[in-house]
Amino acid sequence: MTVFTSTGPRSLDDPGFSEHFLRLVGDGDEWGAVEAVTDLLDAGVAPQRVMLDLIAPTQGRIGELWAANEWSIAREHAATAISERVLAAVAARTPIRPTRGRITVACVDGEWHALPVRILAETLRLDGWRVDFLGANVPGPHLVTHLHQTGPDAVALSCMITARLPRAHAAITACRSVGVPVITGGRGFGPDGRWAHRLGADAWAAGADDAVTRLAHHWPPAPTDPYETAFLGDEEYTHVSRSRGVLVRTAMEKLRAAYPPAADYDQRKHDATAEDLSQITDFLAAALYVGDDLVFTDFIEWTRAVLDARGVPPIALRSGLTLLRDQLHDFPAATAVLDTGLLKAT
User: Fold this and answer.
1) How would you list the strands of the sheet with 203-204, edge to edge?
2) 109 and 185: one domain?
3) Could you tell me if 21 and 89 lie in one domain?
4) Burial of 204 (0-12, 13-18, 19+ CB in 10 A)
5) 217, 252, 268 - which closes a domain
6) If we measure between CA atoms, which residue out of 137, 325, 165, 167 comes closest to residue 247?
7) Tally of domains in the chain
8) Which of 95, 168, 258, 334 could form an SS bridge with 328, CB 3.0 to 4.6 Å?
9) 38-71: burial string, b at 16+ Cβ within 10 Å, e else
């Protein structure tokens, strides 16, 4: 379907339209971006298509541009804010009276990527659900309190970063223990949602459309014991998780000897390196928690690409991994994961 915007004919099926929309949000042009989607809606394009075929893929491109060091973090944040405003404009144009049950939609504790789950919330609303959208970074106890107060038929939990899997597990178990089934989504749960099932989720959806289908045709799920999958992790996970600060601090103290260019780091680079090591430790802990090296190695490959785009040589990453490994030599599972990560960092 072709629509006419202030810049000429555009079609949602034309890749040129997506590039046009990306330029609008990248330039901070809220008015132009809202006008673009309003023209689509006026032309009869379904709001679900606007959200899932335009806004969501554009947000993915924004993340890729930041990772490739083509956009600054400030530009990425500004563009995301425009995307949120555009999504709000779509929602305001499409009021729907609830005809289904009530669902709570939230990001797990520590998860700040709220736009994907907001798109899910709006897609469910268009399907007739009464949606309580709680947003980003919802602590487990507050989530459970909300469930007691509202009595929803389901909880949809989003996790985009695998390092948050232990917290996601706590939230899933807490929800199911009070009798509310959980559907999960987000790339943090792994390929095909493999870690969602390991953490006890009642269902996993590959995207918003899949979630709508599952909730419409395969819900509620057969009840199961929420405590069958309530206990994961072991002493190695516990040690790495609790020793995070010491591991990072010790690695930073020894970094200059292991990687001499670090001696010339200013405060900004020093802080960024400490943050990188903290994230590496978090992903290591998550890999130990679910018992899958892929949690760690995927992150290391991504980190290597991000650092390479910023001119940081691979030896810097390998040095950091080695400094962590040296401190964990008495923990065979952790050192095995780090050894695999070192191979990926080469």
Assistant:
1) 130-135, 102-107, 154-158, 182-185, 203-204
2) yes
3) yes
4) buried
5) 217
6) 325
7) 3
8) 334
9) bebbeeebebbebbbbbbbebbebbeebbbeeeb
Residue 225 inside a domain? The answer is no
Last residue of a domain, one of 217, 244, 267: 217
pTM of the model: 0.90
The per-residue pLDDT string of the chain (346 residues; one tens digit each, 9 = 90 and over) reads: 444 444 543 567 777 899 999 999 999 999 999 999 999 999 999 999 999 999 999 999 999 999 999 999 999 999 999 999 999 999 999 888 999 999 999 999 999 999 999 999 999 999 999 999 999 999 999 999 999 999 999 999 999 999 999 999 999 999 999 999 999 999 999 989 999 999 999 999 999 999 999 999 888 888 777 777 777 888 999 999 999 999 999 999 999 999 999 999 999 999 999 999 999 999 999 999 999 999 999 999 999 999 999 999 999 999 999 999 999 999 999 999 999 999 999 8
Both tokens of 242, joined, read 């609790």
* Dmax (CA) of the chain: 66
CA distance 209 to 50: 13
User: Which residues, 6 or more positions from 314, have their beta carbon under 8 angstroms from its beta carbon?
Assistant: 304, 307, 308, 345, 346
User: Helix (H, G, I), strand (E, B), or coil: what is residue 6?
Assistant: coil
Q: Where are the alpha helices (DSSP H) in the chain?
A: 15-26, 30-42, 47-50, 56-67, 73-93, 114-126, 140-150, 165-177, 194-198, 208-217, 235-242, 244-258, 267-290, 294-309, 314-327, 332-344
206 is in which domain, residue-wise?
102-217
Question: Angle at CA 209, nearest 5°, toward 203 and 214?
Answer: 35
Q: What is the CA radius of gyration of the chain?
A: 22
**291-304 core/surface letters (b: 16 or more CB in 10 A; e: else):** ebbebbbbbbeebb
Considering the domain architecture, whether residues 60 and 82 belong to the same structural domain is answered as yes
Take residue 120 and report the two structure tokens written for it: 């899910």
Q: What are phi and psi of 103, to 5 degrees?
A: -135, 140
**199 and 126, same domain (yes or no):** yes
CA distance 5 to 20: 11
